[in-house]
Amino acid sequence: MKNILKINSKYIMVGATLALTVLGSCSKDFLEETTFGEVSPSEITKAENVEKAIISAYSVLNGQIDGASNAYNSPASNWSFGDVVSDDCYKGGGGTGDQNQIHQMELYNTTPATYDVERKWMALFEGVKRTNEAMKLLNASEDFDASLKTQRTGELRFLRGHYYFELKKIYGQIPYIDETAETVSDYARSNTEFTSAEIWAKIEADFQAAYDVLPSSQEEVGRPTDLAAMAYLAKAYLFQEKWQDVFDATTIVMGGNYGLMEDFQSVFLPENDNGQEVIFAVQYSVNDGQGSNYNGSIGDRLTAPGGPFYSQYGFHRPTQNLVNAFKTNATGLPINDNVDVTETDFVDPRLDITIGRPGIPYKDLEVIYEANWARDLATYGPFGPKKRILSANSPYHVTVWPYVDALNYYIIRYAEVLLWRAEAAVELGNLEEARTLVNQIRERAANSEYVQALDGSGDAAKYNIGTYDTVWTDAIDAMEKVRMESRLELAMEGHRFFNLVRWGIAKEVIDDYLEVEKTKRTHLTNAAFTQGKNEYWPIPQEYIDSVDEGLVTQNNGY
Known about the structure:
The chain is mainly α. Helices cover 40% and strands 5% of the residues. The N and C termini lie far apart (48 Å). Belongs to the SusD family.
């Protein structure tokens, strides 16, 4: 059984109440009686209640705000924000009218009033608010154990760093509010009060402060460690192209106890999802007494692939372009020609671990994935998600509505750290180290268990993956190889679009993708990426309307 940081509805509700009580409490005589589910001001800083406020700050990691059932509009996995708007995935579902606002996102027609844009903003700033309020309660508590207080402060700094990192990479120029906020109005701030560099510095400071005080291990694995904080600091450096800092930070992380698991497919099993490769994850659980399994992967519940074992929600569908990216040559290296894969082609074995393809067995169900599993096949093609979908035989899989499971979402895993370091190595001129790092990941894929044909005849497809055995001497070519490996290794994990943006190639890649994909998928006919606009989402109109006029500057193009 997973030893996780338990987040239940009682703690979420009490924690939210604690935050609201601090922001606006009253002392009238007729209000002195404590309402059921609330905590009186005299009790609010007691250690047990402060712990509940801290748990409340964790609880928003899964995208929940005021109702768990619609967390798919603010998913922790960023499947809509990081995959659907990239060359990796289509929206899917029951046609373009089903969750049409996400369809508009994949056409790059997002507006400041787009529902998901508002929900994601709300979820992340709810995390910021709860974290700030928990910090204040912790500082004010007189009976909280002193040594544990230092650790919990580190956890809260880590959580705030995470929420702001997500806001920064999605929305660009954002308001910044820390624990000095006293009232609700303190959260109605300008998004130009601080420069982009100053916001990054604040994010870095949170992760550095967390690293300085967090322990090297946690009994409750849902809480971050010192190396998790250092890994996140490395990611903050990465997004700013501070290459030496990335290199130095990843050196520290790689000196710890993390490492690649032996088998690629095993990484994405609930029994392993707090294993040696997972540096920090959103903790999920099902069948734990919480109504509608809201502690499970509720933000991903629309991604159920269909077929005889799963509900047919049919979202988060792999593109033909992504499938083609896994094609390899006779030596097992990527071809990257965007020519459709056929049965005679060699393919990277990660293809059929990541994507459901017709003619290939699906999980351990002893059944072939068929094209008719795919909802609205005519619009979105035959492919379905697979990597982060659990076997229907798994006890961590829920078959009833809503479709959820207990597979954690990995915010950072060790393979990413290796790829970040490889990027930094290329930028610093250490091309051979970059080659070694990429080869570590490819070797793991090569040595993993391949998908097998149901008749026992051997591999289900022509799997062939090799390493780069020629010295890398060209930095541009080396970086292309690192970026390709990042796409293959991290496909369908919510990272692709953000990587394209930080690499500065979003316009180029998406234009090339759309030019070909429009000939295959008519729902993309009107898609067009505008450089200088679509790299970031708009500041939600609801936020702009809630603050003083002229206080917020809308992102370019919106």
